[in-house]
């Protein structure tokens, strides 16, 4: 079994028996996709809501919800997945420092979650589980064998969705 | 916009000196608080990808105590004061006499750590403001006890809009027998770097 690490602003696809893992999600959102018929899993570590926020330079596709999610879907399809069998789960989007919430940049967690939902809706992919918001960091691991998403936090232990 | 790729040795030296001055004053303040000698390592100035930032403090999943503040004014950026859990426990014990493990911390313990972080980051920033004659205002500092990756990524959001790399000025400090050790992290916004250099009469690009 191989664990494929997804870094910040990165994305990737896996087949059984591999797992996809990303560590230390704060205000970033971990978007995972799973086609249970073809057993193909995908994960993106989204950092910002919209690519229109990019200030010049090269665009890193995996960084923004509106570019990462369509690209991840493309990779899944290329690997043999079908979007009609694909469902999504979301984790992250926390506000790590709660009382700085008046500033728009500091509200980035909730904005990331909203943007991911919008991009998934555009792609007609259903969200079947969600562990977002709050003020805790999360580490997530998606098992390509069964699509189970494991979510680990410092204070609340491990849960599976 | 700051393009760090053109920096020469001289620019890096200046940034290290900024780390030295700021963290030096903060270390002195810490030393007074706990009445013990605090040593500092030579500041490290690095241009690193976002993924590597958390490696400085032991990896993305390491649980740390962090006081975060936003630097506002002439030269905006983010600042972190980071302690591992054991160090935070020792620090609490030395300053307040409280001896509790992290899972027992309540409002009082959290508030004490918050205040310590406040004093130290404030001292870092005010010495930097004196040195550069720039107007640097701290935001209200916030405290979090959580995974380093989750906390530090928060300070990279503004940078994320401009690129995939951060310039970090990291100063590690430690008490003689290593009971308290931690890091001061300053991550200037890219557009702050030319302002910082100009304030010190240093050219922005090329090696001089």
From TrEMBL, chain A:
<dbReference type="InterPro" id="IPR038592">
    <property type="entry name" value="CheD-like_sf"/>
</dbReference>
<comment type="function">
    <text>Probably deamidates glutamine residues to glutamate on methyl-accepting chemotaxis receptors (MCPs), playing an important role in chemotaxis.</text>
</comment>
<dbReference type="GO" id="GO:0006935">
    <property type="term" value="P:chemotaxis"/>
</dbReference>
<comment type="similarity">
    <text>Belongs to the CheD family.</text>
</comment>
<protein>
    <recommendedName>
        <fullName>Probable chemoreceptor glutamine deamidase CheD</fullName>
        <ecNumber>3.5.1.44</ecNumber>
    </recommendedName>
</protein>
<dbReference type="InterPro" id="IPR011324">
    <property type="entry name" value="Cytotoxic_necrot_fac-like_cat"/>
</dbReference>
<keyword id="KW-0378">Hydrolase</keyword>
<keyword id="KW-0145">Chemotaxis</keyword>
<dbReference type="Pfam" id="PF03975">
    <property type="entry name" value="CheD"/>
</dbReference>
<dbReference type="GO" id="GO:0050568">
    <property type="term" value="F:protein-glutamine glutaminase activity"/>
</dbReference>
<dbReference type="InterPro" id="IPR005659">
    <property type="entry name" value="Chemorcpt_Glu_NH3ase_CheD"/>
</dbReference>
TrEMBL record, chain B:
<dbReference type="InterPro" id="IPR007597">
    <property type="entry name" value="CheC"/>
</dbReference>
<dbReference type="InterPro" id="IPR050992">
    <property type="entry name" value="CheZ_family_phosphatases"/>
</dbReference>
<feature type="domain" description="CheC-like protein">
    <location>
        <begin position="13"/>
        <end position="47"/>
    </location>
</feature>
<keyword id="KW-0378">Hydrolase</keyword>
<dbReference type="InterPro" id="IPR028976">
    <property type="entry name" value="CheC-like_sf"/>
</dbReference>
<feature type="domain" description="CheC-like protein">
    <location>
        <begin position="109"/>
        <end position="143"/>
    </location>
</feature>
<protein>
    <submittedName>
        <fullName>Chemotaxis protein CheC</fullName>
    </submittedName>
</protein>
<keyword id="KW-0145">Chemotaxis</keyword>
<dbReference type="GO" id="GO:0016787">
    <property type="term" value="F:hydrolase activity"/>
</dbReference>
<dbReference type="GO" id="GO:0006935">
    <property type="term" value="P:chemotaxis"/>
</dbReference>
<dbReference type="Pfam" id="PF04509">
    <property type="entry name" value="CheC"/>
</dbReference>
């Amino acid at each position: 079994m191989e664990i494929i690490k997804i870094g910040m602003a990165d994305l990737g696809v896996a087949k059984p028996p591999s797992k996809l893992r990303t560590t230390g999600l704060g205000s970033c959102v971990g978007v995972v996709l799973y086609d249970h018929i073809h057993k193909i899993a995908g994960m993106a570590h989204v950092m910002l809501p919209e690519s229109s926020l990019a200030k010049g330079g090269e665009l890193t596709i995996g960084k923004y919800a509106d570019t990462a999610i369509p690209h991840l879907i493309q990779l899944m399809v290329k690997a043999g997945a079908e979007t009609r069998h694909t469902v999504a789960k979301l984790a992250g989007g926390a506000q790590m420092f709660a009382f700085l919430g008046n500033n728009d940049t500091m509200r980035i967690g909730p904005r990331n979650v909203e943007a991911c939902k919008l991009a998934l809706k555009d792609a007609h992919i259903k969200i079947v589980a969600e562990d977002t918001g709050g003020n805790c960091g999360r580490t997530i691991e998606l098992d390509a064998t069964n699509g189970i998403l494991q979510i680990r936090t410092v204070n609340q232990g491990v849960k599976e969705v | 916009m700051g393009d760090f790729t053109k920096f020469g040795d001289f620019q890096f030296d200046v940034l290290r000196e900024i780390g030295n001055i700021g963290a030096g004053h903060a270390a002195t303040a810490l030393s007074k608080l706990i009445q013990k000698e605090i040593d500092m390592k030579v500041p490290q100035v690095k241009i690193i990808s976002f993924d590597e930032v958390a490696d400085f403090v032991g990896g993305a999943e390491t649980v740390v105590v962090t006081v975060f503040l936003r630097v506002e004014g002439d030269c905006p950026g983010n600042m972190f004061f980071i302690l591992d859990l054991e160090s935070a426990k020792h620090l609490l014990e030395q300053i307040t006499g409280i001896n509790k493990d992290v899972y027992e911390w309540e409002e009082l313990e959290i508030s004490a750590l918050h205040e310590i972080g406040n004093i130290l980051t404030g001292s870092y920033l005010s010495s930097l403001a004196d040195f550069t004659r720039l107007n640097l205002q701290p935001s209200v500092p916030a405290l979090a006890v959580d995974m380093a990756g989750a906390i530090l990524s928060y300070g990279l959001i503004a940078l994320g809009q401009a690129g995939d790399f951060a310039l970090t000025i990291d100063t590690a400090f430690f008490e003689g027998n290593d009971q308290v050790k931690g890091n001061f992290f300053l991550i200037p916004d890219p557009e702050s770097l030319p302002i910082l250099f100009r304030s010190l009469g240093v050219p922005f690009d090329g090696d001089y």
